[in-house]
Specification:
The complex is a heterodimer of chains A (196) and B (343).
Chain A (H helix, E strand, L loop, with lengths): L2 H4 L18 H4 L2 H14 L24 E3 L14 H5 L5 E7 L12 E9 L8 H5 L5 E3 L14 E2 L1 H4 L15 H8 L8
Antiparallel strand pairs in A: 1-4, 2-3, 3-5
Chain B lengths: L2 H36 L15 H11 L10 H17 L7 E6 L2 E5 L7 H22 L3 H32 L4 H7 L11 H14 L11 H4 L9 H26 L15 H27 L7 H32 L1
Antiparallel strand pairs in B: 1-2
């Protein structure tokens, strides 16, 4: 063996120097190795299983997980979105589309701003859940939640409209974990207080 | 040949047929469960508790699958292939002694459908026909992968049959009979053949894996090289028959191993229990099924432990290792028998 071979640094501590030396008789009949293999597989019968029984048991998700989107309402239950289109512009996957409409006089309690999104759609098959829409939103209207987008049979059913995205008035979604320091600073800014 | 006798044979034959099918059905589930456990998974557990309805669901699925037949396939042979495989897989169970006899009203009823005096030969005859089902299916599909799989199956089964028969010849030499019930009776109590023929047992076991086309000798159907091997072009219940026949073969092979080397329905201290003949027979049959289940487990254990052989390695093992070993085993057995008779 050359001196270079003796100084192999093993980072994992598991590396072995391959050798083509002639096998001994015990190695050639393979039976000891096969028995060893049987022992290994048999021990796995009693090991803890890695399976998570999904619908009944869910894997713990981080609170800042970027999952399904939510369109927030403000404290009075009015939709925050003003259909500025910045989220659609920011979206690298071009998953967001919207149609803007003007608020009527009798819709004051429904929409916070004069302009609102009459149609707001996110294609969940295109979405890469990067969270750039959140960052782009000047109205704190869109957030990603720790809810997972469920699987489905049809492509068309993955285009989520306002009926799925807007949070229900009686079931508010807590997004405080996903509010970035930038958002919190924005809230403190007196000049922007009309936005909050 | 009274009506009673015919009725008893009919009941016994149907019972064994049903049990074979049921065992084969549930060994698919057992195999999937074990595969899961060996790989730190859970295996199927959604259809009923522990997935006990999984075989039914699988069967139902196969029935409702599209029945596809390649345009250039030979229709008659294409259908004959799986039917023949299934039939041959079930035929062997006729000569296996599933238990001793039951005495009802002074009449002795043997728990063996056909106690023919050439039982061992019969088993080998049926095993040799077994290759036809695969060969015909592979040929009739008119597909290169199916044909390669079938050719592999044919040469593999013929090669390993040789070593297998040689291993059994030692047993036949020892017991001096070809009748399976006689071979089992000679292993009464704990005088199992495994104590006298350990090498023969090992050879038989390895050959049994090869004969059943089970891993590590599953070259006829190796997915990675031949898509599905001889059943590449099969779908629906015809494919189901091929897959099902494999499990029946496993069951029958396990029964043969238990019969020839592990005393069949005999168990230690069977004479010291002081039970009636019928009770001993019942316990013996249960013990026999426990032995079969154990070997069924070994079949699956091997499958999920050992990687597949390369084809030249398979042939080398069969012809250059197992066959000479079996011949040596015959010579040793003959020598020992001679010494015994001489002294």
């Amino acid at each position: 063996m050359s001196s270079a071979n003796q100084h192999i640094v093993s980072l994992t501590g598991r590396s072995k120097v391959a050798s083509n030396k002639k096998m001994t008789f015990m190695e050639r009949i393979y039976l000891p190795a096969i028995m060893k293999g049987f022992g290994i597989t048999f021990s796995h019968l009693f090991k803890k299983k890695a399976t998570i029984q999904y619908p009944e048991v869910t894997r713990p998700i981080a609170e800042i997980y970027r999952g399904k989107h939510v369109l927030k309402r403000d404290d009075e239950g009015r939709e925050r979105c003003t259909a500025c289109g910045l989220c659609a512009l920011a979206c690298p996957a071009e998953a967001i589309t919207m149609i803007a409409a003007e608020r009527k006089a009798d819709e004051m309690q429904l929409y916070r701003e004069e302009k609102y999104a009459s149609v707001y759609e996110i294609n969940m098959l295109r979405c890469i859940f990067c969270g750039l829409c959140e960052e782009a939103c000047p109205k704190e209207a869109i957030f990603l939640t720790n809810e997972i987008v469920p699987s489905d049979y049809e492509r068309s059913s993955f285009i989520y409209g306002k009926d799925i995205l807007v949070e229900p008035v009686d079931k508010r979604v807590d997004i405080s974990k996903r509010q970035t320091p930038a958002v919190l600073n924005f809230k403190k800014d007196k000049n922007q207080s009309h936005n909050i | 040949m009274d009506g009673n006798y015919i009725l008893y044979k009919f009941i016994l034959a149907s019972a064994i047929l049903l049990i074979s099918l049921l065992v084969a059905m549930y060994s698919t589930l057992f195999e999937r469960k074990l595969a899961g456990f060996f790989q730190d998974r859970l295996g199927p557990n959604r259809a009923g508790i522990f997935g006990i309805f999984q075989p039914l669901a699988d069967g139902l699925k196969l029935f409702f699958k599209e029945e596809f037949m390649p345009g250039s396939a030979d229709k008659f042979l294409y259908i004959l292939g799986p039917s023949l495989t299934m039939m041959i897989a079930l035929l062997t169970s006729a000569v296996i002694p599933w238990g001793n006899s039951i005495i009802i009203n002074g009449v002795e009823y043997s728990l063996q459908v056909a106690d023919i005096n050439v039982g061992v030969l019969y088993v080998f005859a049926i095993l040799s026909i077994g290759v036809y089902g695969i060969m015909i299916g592979g040929w009739a599909s008119n597909n290169k992968y199916a044909l390669i799989g079938a050719v592999r199956a044919a040469s593999q089964m013929i090669s390993y049959e040789l070593a297998m028969s040689m291993a059994i010849i030692s047993i036949v030499m020892m017991s001096g009979t070809l009748s399976l019930s006689e071979i089992v009776n000679q292993q009464h109590g704990f005088h199992w053949n495994i104590w006298y023929q350990p090498l023969g047992f090992l050879l038989f076991l390895v050959c049994a894996f090869a004969e059943c086309n089970r891993s590590p000798f599953d070259l006829p159907e190796c997915e990675t090289e031949l898509i599905g091997g001889y059943h590449t072009e099969y779908s629906s219940m015809k494919l189901g028959f091929y897959l099902f026949a494999e499990y029946i073969n496993m069951f029958i092979s396990s029964a043969m191993i238990a019969t020839l080397y592990f005393g069949g329905y005999n168990f230690p201290f069977m004479d010291d229990l002081g039970l009636s003949h019928n009770a001993i027979t019942m316990i013996g049959t249960i013990v026999f099924f426990i032995k079969i289940s154990f070997f069924g487990f070994v079949f699956m254990w091997v499958r999920w432990t050992l990687p597949r052989f390369r084809y030249d390695q398979l042939m080398r093992l069969g012809w250059k290792t197992l066959l000479p070993l079996a011949l040596v085993n015959i010579v040793i057995t003959g020598f020992v028998i001679m010494l015994k008779n001489h002294s």
